[in-house]
Automatic annotation (TrEMBL):
This is UDP-glucuronate decarboxylase. It holds the Pfam family Epimerase. Residues 17-287 form the NAD-dependent epimerase/dehydratase domain. It is found in: Cytoplasm. It catalyses: UDP-alpha-D-glucuronate + H(+) = UDP-alpha-D-apiose + CO2; UDP-alpha-D-glucuronate + H(+) = UDP-alpha-D-xylose + CO2. Keywords: Cell wall biogenesis/degradation, Cytoplasm, Lyase, NAD. Its main location: cytoplasm. GO terms for biological process: cell wall organization; UDP-D-apiose biosynthetic process. Belongs to the NAD(P)-dependent epimerase/dehydratase family. It comes from the Eukaryota.
Amino acid sequence: MATRTDLDGRPIKPMTICMIGAGGFIGSHLCEKLMSETPHKVLALDVYNDKIKHLLEPDSLPWAGRIQFHRLNIKHDSRLEGLIKMADLTINLAAICTPADYNTRPLDTIYSNFIDALPVVKYCSENNKRLIHFSTCEVYGKTIGSFLPKDSPLRQDPAYYVLNEDTSPCIFGSIEKQRWSYACAKQLIERLIYAEGAENGLEFTIVRPFNWIGPRMDFIPGIDGPSEGVPRVLACFSNNLLRREPLKLVDGGESQRTFIYIKDAIEAVLLMIENPDRANGHIFNVGNPNNEVTVRQLAEMMTKVYAKVSGETVLESPTVDVSSKEFYGEGYDDSDKRIPDMTIINKQLGWNPKTSLWDLLESTLTYQHRTYAEAIKKSIAKPSAS
């Protein structure tokens, strides 16, 4: 492998990375990138390894020996500090991050995203280890624009809805709206990391993902994702399409989102890993403001893309409206628009996303259609217990 250089032309030294949550959607893509394109070693920590099994075996793989899987739960495992000490950098991806859980499991959500992350931050700080912590675009909450009258022309002014890491406020709903338990826990751990940097010199980078999409994203309950609960919007819509059911639009599908292809996003993370001088002390939005749609428009586009990749006809009634109370339960609330300001990441790391919404949906739905077909075949092939 040719010597890699950072953005300032300096050679990049091979490093050991402790990756917490390596077996998930983002972790699996990041591990792939690190194994195929860099000389770095990964200590992969997670409860499951299904999504990275292809990287772990057989021993003849070109990166054999550079990735080690450690099956552990960071809640209660005494090995955690030792593994962080062995590494040059810790990346924390562990989280409960499914909207349906914020209402129904608010305690688990708060513990997972704040309490369980505390030892990770503490061990990095005490042992002078660099930390890349994954937060969320949810920390911004609602936009200032959402509080303006519906017909106000100011709603169209980017100053009222484009989200900037250093200047945008974090506006959450009332305490009874438990949907904000996730965002609030994530914001508090961000503040703690920032304080560790200010008071104790912790070297940190915080990542705020804006809807990262792609293959291996949880989508088939019990097969490629959790067996219960409601997944995120794209996974929900994928499930409906695969099962030939109408796509459920919560409260009319008027909320707006931006979506980014996982491979584009991972490029940004690799730049953070290999350019600590440019990334330390920064919070980075990682999203694609060019891929902005309402949830209703997303449903319409996914219906067309799925018809193309599957060859199946579109349902006569492809969508159905449901209320948020009916879909998520009591205490749900939502953010109206989430458009990332990309100024800081562009200035520090020179990074811009590339993949269009149509292309990322086509890649994701092609993968999901194939995986679903294989899962159905397996379940049919299994002999039933008599």
